[in-house]
């Protein structure tokens, strides 16, 4: 689909579709539309934007019924495209008050139960609509039939039909009254079948289609941007978050988190669009931010490559809105599960320092960076506690968590290693003998070298505990990380603390 815009802000392809002459009289003759519908269509079709706006203000609900009826009764592709373009144009053109109000009317037409929303006189005056018209529209709408034609159209027809159905559905669903269903917090569905069931079915149907577009796009360059843009609008809904995670959709977003300059290369090995944009990257990061409020999504993000990918983007991006949404995501994730340790280990504190050096115009971004910096400092303090380190060593599975290379930790806690007759030091030496995990062996060698350097009697104690023999065996280990840290440990064992400070890890 041509993404360029013509006059009035419409896409070029929309303009071409709306130039078509639809045989409304023939449809009435074959009883696919009524005589009343034909009269309404003659008044509305091919009229100017101002004339259409006036007609919608005067008799909007009737036009809603006509458009929905056509989509339900007529299956000719050219006509379906035309009506969808009319609906999209209508939702785009009408004023703010009319937009929200008419969207509520569409919800009824497409089978979504709703509560009538009563607007104050001030709201009506501010939107330049008189009370008589508003009351007239509200009185005409009740009792519209249930119809899920848009959900059905998502899976049928060409890309134009699918994309328009998606866009219209997303507008309808995102603008509905938020008290319309009794959804529980954090994404859990409500037990209220009368409200949630119908809306939930439509939402889940749309999310299923969006996930399908991310997996196997209907359009080579527009399916993914359309799906991500729609998700960025809808994921603020708890029910949408729940459905998206249940459909395993989070993993479909992770490959899209790459710097714009690198996205084209990534697209060659995936089903992503061939010409990604900064907007796609921003909306993908916006989706991740929205998901960071939902526990089951956070659990998945913790086991994915999400964090390093976000860091790669934020290091290279100068676009404020992209940086802002990523920083806000970091803030949300920092206190959750193992994210704090990962952030410190991946060098986020330094990245934040670099970002703070920029002259950002967004005050919210500057404040968020300051808050993230303080959160990271507090996290480092917590991660550097000897109790946490002790727990990690006693479990026997070591990794390069921030504490191991934190000079402050070793200076402040070196005497704690003397507890229980050097219990922790003995366990480290045991790990050198018993572990088959290269990472644990490398970290144990490094920690032992730190003890030797920092403790006044470190070399003597380590030799008394037969550490040298264990470390020597690892000098020929097949893993380079292990041999590197074993060599460092041996050097400190032989040279002692006086010369160890000159050695580089």
Q: Can you write the helix and strand succession as a string?
A: HHHHHHHHHHHHHHHHHHHHHHHHHHHHHH
**Biggest beta sheet summary:** none
SS field, number of helical segments? 30
Q: Could you tell me how far the N terminus lies from the C terminus, measured between alpha carbons in angstroms?
A: 56 Å
Could you characterize what this model shows?
- It is a single chain.
- This protein has 505 residues and is mainly α.
- It is built from 30 helices and no strands.
- Helix 19 packs parallel to helix 22 and helix 26 runs parallel beside helix 29.
- The radius of gyration is 31 Å and the shape is elongated.
Question: Quick recap of the structure?
Answer:
With 505 residues, the protein is mainly α. 68% of the residues lie in helices and 0% in strands.
Task: Fill in the keyword field for this structure.
505 residues; disordered C terminus; 0% strand; mainly alpha; elongated
Outline the secondary-structure elements.
Layout: H1 12-18, H2 24-29, H3 35-44, H4 49-73, H5 77-93, H6 96-109, H7 121-126, H8 131-141, H9 149-153, H10 159-175, H11 193-215, H12 223-234, H13 238-246, H14 250-253, H15 260-267, H16 278-291, H17 295-302, H18 306-316, H19 320-333, H20 339-345, H21 348-356, H22 363-383, H23 386-395, H24 407-413, H25 419-434, H26 438-454, H27 458-464, H28 467-473, H29 480-495, H30 497-500
Helix pairs in contact: 3-4, 4-5, 4-6, 4-8, 5-10, 6-10, 10-12, 11-12, 11-13, 12-16, 16-19, 18-19, 19-22, 20-22, 21-22, 25-26, 26-27, 26-29
């Amino acid at each position: 689909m041509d993404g360029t815009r013509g006059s009035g802000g419409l896409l070029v392809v929309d303009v071409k579709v709306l130039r078509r002459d639809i045989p409304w009289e023939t449809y009435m003759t074959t009883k696919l539309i009524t005589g009343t519908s034909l009269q309404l269509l003659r008044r509305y079709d091919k009229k100017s934007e101002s004339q259409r706006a006036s007609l919608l203000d005067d008799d909007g609900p009737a036009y809603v019924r006509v458009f929905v009826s056509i989509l339900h009764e007529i299956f000719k592709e050219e006509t379906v495209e035309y009506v969808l373009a009319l609906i999209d144009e209508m939702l785009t053109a009408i004023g703010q008050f009319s937009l929200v109000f008419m969207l509520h009317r569409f919800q009824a037409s497409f089978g979504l139960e709703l509560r009538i929303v009563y607007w104050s006189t001030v709201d009506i005056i501010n939107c330049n609509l008189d009370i008589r018209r508003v009351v007239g529209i509200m009185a005409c709408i009740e009792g519209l039939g249930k119809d899920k034609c848009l959900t059905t159209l998502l899976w049928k027809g060409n890309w134009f039909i699918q994309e328009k159905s998606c866009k219209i559905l997303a507008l309808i669903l995102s603008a509905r009254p938020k008290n319309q269903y009794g959804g529980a917090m954090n994404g859990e569905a409500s037990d209220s079948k009368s409200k949630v069931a119908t809306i939930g079915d439509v939402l889940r149907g749309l999310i299923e289609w969006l996930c399908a577009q991310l997996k196997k796009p209907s359009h080579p360059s527009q399916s993914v941007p359309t799906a991500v843009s729609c998700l960025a609008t809808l994921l603020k809904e708890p029910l949408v978050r729940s459905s998206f995670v249940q459909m395993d959709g989070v993993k479909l977003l992770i490959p899209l988190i790459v710097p714009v300059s690198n996205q084209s290369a990534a697209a060659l090995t995936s089903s992503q669009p061939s010409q990604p944009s900064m907007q796609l990257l921003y909306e993908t990061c916006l989706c991740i931010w929205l998901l960071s409020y939902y526990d089951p999504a956070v659990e998945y993000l913790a086991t994915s490559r999400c964090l390093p990918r976000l860091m790669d983007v934020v290091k290279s991006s100068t676009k404020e809105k992209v940086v802002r949404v990523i920083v806000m995501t970091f803030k949300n994730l920092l206190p959750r599960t193992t994210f704090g340790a990962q952030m410190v280990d991946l060098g986020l504190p330094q990245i934040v320092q670099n970002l703070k050096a920029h002259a950002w115009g967004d005050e919210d971004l500057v404040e968020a960076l300051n808050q993230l910096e303080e959160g990271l400092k507090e996290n480092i303090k917590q991660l550097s506690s000897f109790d946490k380190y002790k727990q990690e060593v006693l479990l026997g599975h070591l990794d390069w968590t921030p504490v191991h290379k934190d000079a402050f930790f070793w200076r402040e806690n070196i005497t704690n290693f003397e507890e229980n007759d050097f219990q922790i030091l003995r366990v480290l030496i045991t790990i050198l003998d018993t572990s088959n995990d290269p990472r644990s062996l490398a970290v144990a060698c490094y920690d032992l070298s730190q003890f030797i350097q920092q403790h006044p009697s470190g070399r003597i104690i380590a030799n008394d505990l037969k550490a040298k023999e264990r470390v020597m065996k690892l000098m020929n280990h097949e893993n380079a990380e292990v041999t590197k840290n074993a060599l460092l440990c041996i050097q400190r064992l032989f040279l002692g603390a006086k010369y160890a400070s000159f050695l580089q890890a």
